[in-house]
Amino acid sequence: MKKRILTLASVFLLAFSSNAQQVEFEEYDLDNGMHVILHQDNSAPVVVTSVMYHVGAKDEQPNRTGMAHFFEHLLFEGTKNIEKGAWFKIVSSNGGNNNANTTDDRTYYYEVFPSNKVELGLWLESERLLHPIIGQDGVDTQNEVVKEEKRLRVDNQPYSRLLENIKIHMFKKHPYKGTTIGKMEHLDAATLDEFLAFNKKFYVPNNATLVVAGDIDKKSVKKMIQDYFGPIPKGKDIARNFPKEDPITKTISAKATDPNIQIPAIVAAYRTPSMKTRDSRVLDMISTYLSGGRSSVLFKKLVDQQKKALAVQAVNLSQEDYGVYALFALPQGDNKIHDLLKEMDVEVKKLQTDLISEKDYQKLQNQFENRFVSSNSSVQGIANSLARYNVLYGDTNLINTEINIYRSITREDIREVAKKYLNPNQRLVLEYLPEKK
């Protein structure tokens, strides 16, 4: 009887979360091509103003890597109406906070304000788009900022070049072979005209999605948006035609060294499809099954039971055009990295051969339901999701419906996707080793 009560409770919770998490939004386009998404939530006096530009590291020239990330910094320098260094002061003095981030696929800027400052947030973002000051002084200042960031986050951090070394071997044609932070010599060599050209090409309203979410009055916000963003001229359409990768048909073996590590690592990486595909969502579930928490298959086996590994992880790094599925492990004591790989391969082979148990399958479904609820638990998270689903997936309503894709994934789907993508002849095996001194 107790078991039945728990099952009914789970069903009730699932139904409740499905209804409670429905995110209402309105979207439309300005005449200049800017896409606008509004989400009204008057439960707290907070508003998020954000803009996601469809430009990332993959849009850079091969000899000018790091440009997209550089602009994330550069466009806080100031505008014709905002003095150099005043941006953050304006935000903080009005009770807000702000930030930005860049990936291979997009760049995202946002402010979080008390809701009575929504117009200030819109003005700031319109200034970034309409009146940026891109001069040599600002370029030089931010060049030093980015170099310091690279020193802190890459040059002096253990295992920080791991992904870079994976991508170099996984992508021979597609620009995903680069890194988001780029090469400093490329930024040093860039001319002011090149920075101006990058801004003119990508920082245009028809390459941007504006999201205003929170405690708003939509009628008045629409007028503000029209006033601040409507007059901005439309830019040229951006054509993207990136080269396709040839299939990997035999194991790629590689080594890389890192001066900041003492313990070697082993990586098995597989090229996988776009995050927009159903298969990519199945791979999300596979990675969670293998290493999502202390009760996961690989953690229990290699860390808890066999005590062969200090850490183990399976991760689906999905992106707009391709993804990378990676298995990673650090050995404990005298255990060998290739022995860890063999043990991970055993578990992948089981996935390809047998159906996971009903208990493990239900656990996966519960984990993804929980992630769905958590991702929409704050207005800031909702604003980010609305922008991301529109820009990278072309379907804003995935904020409500993507969970249905995960719900529809079966145990058979998990087995078939593992068989399709996670094979030894389709992967890179990377030995990531301490640098000899």
UniProtKB/TrEMBL annotation:
Alphabetical keyword list: Hydrolase, Metalloprotease, Protease, Signal, Zinc
InterPro entries found in the cross-reference section: Metalloenz_LuxS/M16, Pept_M16_N, Peptidase_M16, Peptidase_M16_C
Tagged with keyword Zinc: yes
Position of the signal peptide: 1-20
Top-rank taxon, per record: Bacteria
Peptidase M16 C-terminal domain mapped to chain residues: 190-367
Keyword Signal: yes
Pfam families, A to Z: Peptidase_M16, Peptidase_M16_C
Residue ranges occupied by any Peptidase M16 N-terminal domain in the UniProt entry: 36-181
Family per similarity comment: Belongs to the peptidase M16 family.
Protein name, as recorded: M16 family metallopeptidase
Organism: Pseudotenacibaculum haliotis
